[in-house]
Design goal:
Layout (H helix, E strand, L loop, with lengths): L1 H13 L10 H7 L3 H12 L9 H7 E12 L5 E3 L4 H15 L2 E12 L2 E11 L9 E11 L4 E10 L14
Parallel strand pairs: 1-6
Antiparallel strand pairs: 1-2, 3-4, 4-5, 5-6
Helix pairs in contact: 3-4
Length: 176
């Protein structure tokens, strides 16, 4: 009986919501079959409720080893700035705030340009703290560069800017 109670307690602890289910190897293979799948997996891998671990293995699986993540913004002096990060640096910077605050990012609109194995996706996004929030706290555009090596799609870089009063999202990219 004691073993049964211990087993039930372990199941309850593990299913309490503090851990996010990691996707299977089969799902990770599907994630890189199409551009749609890559971008869907990208947003899904970084999204989750407060206290929920992110699926960083899924995120890493999408990236070439030399991938770059490049957020842009405006510093305190009003100057446009950028920061170049590797996927590991991005995980290090983002992980704790995503878990502490909750973070859901989802696509509103996408434009793609293709030339053979090279694709540029202009992906308009919205961000919420919880999936159930009525309104996003942030919007912006991800410029995602992808490469097909003949077997799968890879994310080469993600370069992004948040919307602001000085930099509103143009209507053609708004998804409206």
């Amino acid at each position: 009986m004691k073993k049964y109670i211990t087993a039930v307690a372990m199941i309850l602890v593990l299913s309490s919501g503090s851990l996010k289910a990691q996707v299977s190897a089969e799902q990770r293979a599907k994630d890189v079959e199409t551009i749609d799948n890559v971008i869907e997996a990208l947003y899904a891998s970084i999204s989750g409720e407060k206290g929920e671990e992110r699926d960083w293995e899924r995120f890493r699986n999408l990236m070439i080893p030399e991938a770059q993540l490049i957020p842009t913004g405006v510093n305190s002096e009003g100057k446009n700035v950028y920061q170049v990060m590797s996927p590991e640096q991005f995980i290090e910077v983002a992980n704790s705030s995503f878990i502490e605050d909750g973070f859901y990012e989802y696509e509103l609109h996408r434009d793609e340009q293709r030339y053979g194995r090279v694709v540029h996706a202009f992906s308009t996004y919205a961000s919420k703290r919880s999936k159930s929030d009525a309104e996003p706290f942030n919007k912006g555009i991800n410029s995602i560069q992808l490469f097909n090596d003949g077997e799968r799609w890879w994310v080469v870089s993600i370069y992004w800017a948040h919307e602001s009063e000085a930099n509103p999202i143009p209507e053609k990219y708004s998804g409206m």
